[in-house]
Amino acid sequence: MIEVFNEINRWLLGEDKHITILEKTLKIAIILICVKIITKISYVMIDKFFKRQQNLKIGIEERKANTLAIILKSLCKYIFYFIALIPILDQFGIETKSILATAGVGGLAIGFGAQSLVKDVITGFFILFEDYFSVGDYIQTGEYEGVVEEIGIRSTRIRDFSGDLHIMPNGKIEIVTNRSRGDMRALVEVRINYEEDIDKALRVLERVAQSMSNEETIVSGPKVLGVTSLTKEGITLSMMAMTRPMEQWQVERNLRKAIKEEFQKHGISINDRRKVVLERDDLL
């Protein structure tokens, strides 16, 4: 039995110089399958670890745990595949030991033109440890904005509201606006005609604000700000509420719906900028 094991070990390590191309291919396939299995096992262990951490009394926040889990999974994947690369190169007769001994891992990375990769990895760790954003946050960076789906050690994936997925190298992320930290503002403006009673419209808005003050997604308010603009199109009335992160748009939609219904009930018309067209005969 020991002799059989030694023979298999010698075969995998490539000590036999008289192996065929088919055997080399089989060796590479076995190495890749082993790496795949080990990677999957590490993923399961990482998930279980962070699951236990979240269940503790003083546990890690869910978004933070998800971010750390994704980072560790990416790191494990890169390490395992890099380790597997050495015996695979040996199958092609490349002396990896001498390369690593003379150039070192850092020199080998630069030799393959990996300066940008190193920058992406370093920036990724800064994003994680300085807590710029986490998985599930709504952010804007440069011309892109959306929900963070994944943070890797070299790239970040952002899904915008149209469904497009933006994959950005971490080294390209410089200025970040995080719209998921702290309370968010929901602002609604409504324009009425100059002929309408302003005090009556404000009283109706106050009733709307009072009726929606118990909404779970609203942290404070809504508060009627009053007349905020006088233009040729009409009188602009505004109201504002502070909401939970990512809930401001839904609150704004609910407020607009409630205002429209209450205005219609009390006979207050919203300015629709309709034009009156006079025929030539009417001018005579």
From TrEMBL:
Domain Mechanosensitive ion channel MscS C-terminal: residue ranges: 188-270
GO cellular component: plasma membrane
Annotated SUPFAM superfamilies: Mechanosensitive channel protein MscS (YggB), C-terminal domain, Mechanosensitive channel protein MscS (YggB), transmembrane region, Sm-like ribonucleoproteins
Keyword Nucleotide-binding recorded: no
Mechanosensitive ion channel transmembrane helices 2/3 domain segment(s): 77-115
One Pfam family named in its UniProt record: MS_channel_2nd
Topology class, membrane: Multi-pass membrane protein
Spans through the membrane: 28-46, 67-89
Main location: membrane
Domain Mechanosensitive ion channel MscS: 117-180
InterPro entries to which the protein is assigned, alphabetical: LSM_dom_sf, MS_channel_1st, MS_channel_C, MscS_beta-dom_sf, MscS_channel_2nd, MscS_channel_C_sf, MscS_channel_TM-2, YbiO_bact
Compartment(s) where it occurs, according to its Swiss-Prot or TrEMBL record: Cell membrane
Keywords for this protein: Cell membrane, Membrane, Transmembrane, Transmembrane helix
Similarity comment: Belongs to the MscS (TC 1.A.23) family.
UniProt name for this protein: Mechanosensitive ion channel
Species the sequence originates in: Gottschalkia acidurici (strain ATCC 7906 / DSM 604 / BCRC 14475 / CIP 104303 / KCTC 5404 / NCIMB 10678 / 9a) (Clostridium acidurici)
Lineage, broadest ranks: Bacteria, Bacillati, Bacillota, Tissierellia, Tissierellales
Gene name, Swiss-Prot/TrEMBL: mscS
